[in-house]
């Protein structure tokens, strides 16, 4: 299992940027009922009579790691903006104290930025006051025989990541999130996942890090795997608080934190069409592919195709910018789908398979064009129907890049994870996913792409970049090289960062030499890269 290659079901997300840090009250009990500052506890019993972890009302919105607050739990802003200006000090960071399993369960979507369906989520706690730190998410394996290995690797991944940053977790909170199947109940889910919860607790304990709490969230209720007292944790479960009514929701609203719905809802926006509309789009892609071959055989055919693709993309972004839909995500996506014809989508999808064209398209990354560009990349992803599913990797990666560039890390992770689930060796998606998980700043890559744009405008003809002659056999494109540079020179967190964090052996699109299906795909990628 690789924490940076996140397939649809067996998917792992490491959120090591400590966006919400937490600190429980000094006398809050751990899983054994002992004070948090006592020796490592036994996970056999627990009590939550005292405050548990606290999350600050303000959180970092940049990609770099935040500095955890060391204020006492329950501390609120003691200095206004005027006071801060007068004294020359930063306002104190407000804290929200989470008291017991109910508030821990309610905090999960705010920790992740979305509700993680069908997922294992592990959250590291640091220090005596248990500040929230890194998080790791993995899709729950459908095969129960994989649970022991999954638990061991997840525990090692989260704990070793903290050690690399000189911040070994003091404890861990485990969440198991899954909705019941038809005819089943949340209690059935809780009972079925109990062996997985126990294995996760054992795996963490084997590494000398206790599990403070293990919760199962299903069908609007939660259960604790650590509390044996049916008076506070009844067998039928405890209802979740109403959305938007908790202290955590108020703190999130104050801090500008946004919950983007569920993971399934986010992935649905990036799922290709099905049914008759998918068949029509596939026919348009077949027709466009047939017309593309003779064009590529002409002199300077690749240059012409790149220019036409970028001109069409610019026209589509302008069209999307002029028509901003409203309503639910589903309604907005339907409006976006109606703004682009099957033929236009086919030409763009095929043209973006060229890495130079893709890198030029990545220049639409900020300012007023970022939002319409993101809508376009999502719309193109939904058009990669039938046998063209592999073509979705390029627009998915562009969507992830725009999300990261506009400080929407959760959406970026989902888009890049979808891309890597289709093609684990796609180098640009690999590099972006690692950079986000390592808390790097996207500005070095943005700066490189701005320079690329200036070079392209200054070049003869004012359209193509100096890198237009790049060979498909090159190991990395301009954007990929910039991403690698950002990982080397960006503001990474303290501690060594030499351990590989993503899929191994990736050499980028069009350069793989594996046999079988991978070799056939490499040949197709080679052909696409020459466009």
Question: Keywords for this structure?
Answer:
531 residues, alpha+beta, seven-stranded mixed sheet, two-stranded antiparallel ribbon, disordered N terminus
Radius of gyration (CA) equals 24 Å
The SS-based structural class is: alpha+beta
Low-confidence stretches: 1-11, 16-91, 463-475, 489-531
Task: Please state how the strands of the largest beta sheet are arranged side by side.
Answer: 1-5-4-6-7-8-9
Summarize the structure.
The protein is α+β, with helices and mostly antiparallel strands and 531 residues long.
Structure overview:
This protein is an alpha+beta fold. Helices cover 44% and strands 9% of the residues. The protein is built from 18 helices and 9 strands. The strands form 2 sheets. It has a 7-stranded mixed beta sheet with strand order 1-5-4-6-7-8-9, sandwiched between helices. Strands 2-3 form a two-stranded antiparallel ribbon. Helix 4 (186-206) links the parallel strand 6 and strand 7 (211-218). Helix 13 (393-405) packs antiparallel against helix 14 (409-422) and helix 15 runs parallel beside helix 17 (478-489). The relative contact order is 0.11.
